[in-house]
Description:
By secondary structure, this protein is of the alpha+beta class. The protein has four helices and six strands; from the N terminus they run ααββαββββα. The protein has one domain (4-139): Nuclear Transport Factor 2, Chain: A, CATH 3.10.450. It has helices at 4-24, 27-34, 55-65, 132-139, and strands at 35-46, 49-54, 77-86, 89-98, 101-112, 115-128. A hairpin with a 2-residue loop joins strand 3 and strand 4. Helix 1 (4-24) packs antiparallel against helix 2.
Amino acid sequence: MQNQAADVAGVQACIRAYLDGLYKGDTDLLFKTAFHPDARMNAADVGGERIHWTMAEFEKVILERGSPEAAGYPRKERIVSIDFAGPDTANVKVEVLVGLRDFTDLLACIRIDGGWKIIAKTYCLTREFATKEDVLAAVA
């Protein structure tokens, strides 16, 4: 039988690497620590198109956009819930600010070789700010 506290801590560590990687633009944290190489990312409608990306496509986006940290954006995120569907699977709901955009992410995590990885990300853009000043005012 698995240790539930260790499982929660393992999933949280994976999600922290994901959130740190998003904020810092750190592709090692994102694509070596948080995401499984076979992971996929999906969104129903962003700017009129459906998103279905591989990790290589997502990494290109991260590299092109630069880091919110370097651009001086505040950091705001929270793990809303972690739900285990079995001993080696968990679904995590996260709210995260990335630059001018607020997202709700649904992250499917699996345990592989004793470690937790994100195998799928589905997200929704929930708010887009017009300016950095608007973000700073909203987060203050």
